[in-house]
Specification:
The chain has 120 residues and is mainly alpha-helical. The chain contains one helix and no strands.
Length: 120
């Protein structure tokens, strides 16, 4: 009878140990699955951030190229406007010179006409 009780006790302990071991394995498997799910979720966000960063880098490079091109075009336009202003000033100078010569020629013409009339 005592040996029967010892055997039953040992069997119950063995059953409990097996059940506890099985539950421990299930808990480890569940924790591992949860960890993988969390890491996958985080990695998805990180991967999306990485893709977005790559897109931003590409767009930034394109913007820098476009800005440099725009700056070159602006400098060309400024040079054209400056050249145009210089040309306008030169035309104004030529116009003043022509007026000055015209005034001198009228003065000379008037003087010659006056002298011709006086000579008659």
């Amino acid at each position: 009878m005592l040996s029967n009780l010892v055997k039953q006790h040992q069997q119950k302990q063995q059953t409990r140990k097996e059940r506890q071991e099985r539950r421990k394995k299930e808990a480890i498997a569940a924790a591992t699955a949860l960890t993988h799910a969390l890491v996958d979720h985080l990695n998805t966000g990180v991967a999306q951030a990485y893709v977005n960063q790559k897109k931003l880098d590409t767009e930034t490079k394109i913007l820098q190229v476009n800005a440099a091109h725009f700056a070159r075009q602006t400098m060309q336009w400024l040079k054209l406007v400056e050249d145009f202003n210089t040309s306008l000033k030169e035309i104004g100078d030529v116009e003043n010179w022509a007026r000055s010569i015209e005034t001198d020629m009228r003065t000379i013409s008037s003087a010659l006409e006056y002298a011709y009339r006086k000579g008659d």
